[in-house]
């Protein structure tokens, strides 16, 4: 029941709607804007520009959605990870923080509109997201999220123990944060649907066409070379993220890789689905060492975690950890859990965990550092990158243009150490509060 593909043994490759037809770039083409990378950020940028009448060419080394856009777990929750909104304001300063907060927290409006307007077949449901409170110490933090996110227009609320149990089907949470606007989807199906929309709007996508170099063109503008052709463009945007290979010197040094794994169960019986995630929401177990899960359209639970120690290396042990955590969260699951699909993805991590927009040269920009907020973040970035390409003044953009900067050396190990710290912190707080401990915590 696995699908062997360039994506690995992914559920999404087995179930996504087919990709639109695209060709390898042969010879020379001209464009106003050349976009390198056909993930969410690149495709939504191309879509925005094409709708504005701009001549756009997209180059992709593999196929649309090949990177993180086709491998993620399919959660679409328009929030920030790691940093609270007040922390973001202190870190980014104004007006940058408020502009980015507005784009991110309204990202699902854009996702929903694109899926509706272009009839994208991607299992989209907008049934909300719940972050559980696994111990008493988590409740104040959740209430703070409700207050700060609602202050910027989000539709969220605190739910008590009884309501969170009703929504999730789990007795393990003391309360929770319900984000009403969150959703989930088939991420590869969404990427392919965006590619189809880009083509529909008149832009060109060339797959199997890796950008080898980007140099000034003798006649003006830039020449982006591939193995069998090149694009002459006035402006160039790199949106290759964690899957950056060449194209511009040292762009792949602007982030460090953090691996994540995703797995999908067998199709669960209807009687289980009536009591486990009965509202088809996305669930975050509330721990820093996260376990996030939801259903796909077939009724498989799709869950994700980060590798740690044996977890992620020893596959039998990893499946055991995931099964026992799921059954602990939902004691009503009495049958054996079989993980039919199991795959890895890579995140382009930044210490700020927000995207970075780099000014590479006059008319050339790059964006990396989504840090795991792929679906909503990648979808809203198209509006920012298209504004840059259309000549909106730098001081009016929602991301500040920066010089190319390598990620600090400690980012090679900081995310893993942070996960271990979160795990220890949560275990201490759980024991102090008298709450039950999950297996393998």
TrEMBL record:
<keyword id="KW-0560">Oxidoreductase</keyword>
<dbReference type="GO" id="GO:0016491">
    <property type="term" value="F:oxidoreductase activity"/>
</dbReference>
<dbReference type="InterPro" id="IPR036188">
    <property type="entry name" value="FAD/NAD-bd_sf"/>
</dbReference>
<dbReference type="GO" id="GO:0005737">
    <property type="term" value="C:cytoplasm"/>
</dbReference>
<dbReference type="InterPro" id="IPR006076">
    <property type="entry name" value="FAD-dep_OxRdtase"/>
</dbReference>
<dbReference type="Pfam" id="PF01266">
    <property type="entry name" value="DAO"/>
</dbReference>
<feature type="domain" description="FAD dependent oxidoreductase">
    <location>
        <begin position="32"/>
        <end position="388"/>
    </location>
</feature>
<protein>
    <submittedName>
        <fullName>Oxidoreductase</fullName>
    </submittedName>
</protein>
